[in-house]
Amino acid sequence: MNAHEIDYVLHGDDMQCVEIELDPNESVVAEAGGMMMMEDGIDMETIFGDGDNSQKGFLGKLVGAGKRVLTGESLFMTVFTNKGVGKRKVSFAAPYPGKIIPVDLSELGGKIICQKDSFLCAAKGVSVGIDFQRKLGTGFFGGEGFIMQKLEGDGLAFLHAGGTIVRRDLQPGEKLRIDTGCLVALTKEVDYNIEFVGKVKTAFFGGEGLFFATVQGPGTVWIQTLPFSRLADRVIASAPSAGGGDSRGEGSILGGLGRLLDGDR
């Protein structure tokens, strides 16, 4: 498996985009709708599956696309290829505030496991599939579900996660407990499981949920400080339609009088 060798530059801080430079006939594959801009000479093609360079018939491509559906993704992906003479650039934007994580699969044993919605784009030749967790507890109680994505190959891939990203390189036997929604990705050597919080009062009133993820080294894990689900919950709770928000600033001195003047009841 030989993925295309691409160059890239990350722009921004909290709302990042990745600018990928393609030589003639080089390609990058991305989730549908992830492209921000591209230069003249870049050809865009919608394909089944993940853009893996291995030879597959129609049935093989259909199976690959079906596996992506199990992770909640679209049947289709988009391949961007430089059909021009010189170098051309194409950029992909993060879907919500957070960081873009570049990972070189050739330096990580050729495979990483990640959240099903964290994949942004990758060099053509990187296989995007599904990874079934070995332990049923992980599947039924893990915040990311029984099925997670796996990226395989020897090229560059780009993940996206919310808030700030913390990378931890675990030593053999080193164990870390993580909120299930905060775990973004891990290398294939890491042992991953779900554990019960342990104390009933803590589980029901602590606000951290009933379960947390445990990862044990050796290997590398990536952790996000702001899962999108947590951000969405806060936004929904503060929305006026949900009864938790206000169309004026929270610090308005008018308070209820302001709502009365505006005609709100």
What attributes characterize this protein structure?
six-stranded antiparallel beta sheet; alpha+beta; 265 residues
Descriptive overview:
This protein is an alpha+beta fold and 265 residues long. 16% of the residues lie in helices and 41% in strands. The protein contains five helices and 19 strands. It has helices at residues 58-70, 136-141, 200-205, 228-238, 256-262; strands spanning 7-11, 17-22, 27-31, 35-38, 42-48, 76-82, 88-93, 98-104, 111-114, 119-123, 127-132, 147-152, 156-162, 165-170, 175-179, 183-187, 191-196, 211-216, 219-224. The longest helix has 13 residues, at 58-70. The termini are far apart. Residues 248-254 have low confidence and may be disordered.
Report the count of strand segments.
19
**Anisotropy-based shape:** globular
Going across the biggest sheet, name each strand in turn: 5-6-3-10-13-8
- Euclidean distance between termini CA atoms: 64 Å
Order of helices and strands: EEEEEHEEEEEEHEEEEEEHEEHH
Q: What is the beta-strand fraction?
A: 35-45%
Query: Can you summarize the main beta sheet?
Result: 6 strands, antiparallel
Number of helices: 5
Structural class: alpha+beta
In the predicted model, the low-confidence regions spanning at least 5 consecutive residues are: 248-254
**Rg over CA atoms:** 21 Å
Tell me roughly what share of residues is in helical segments: 10-25%
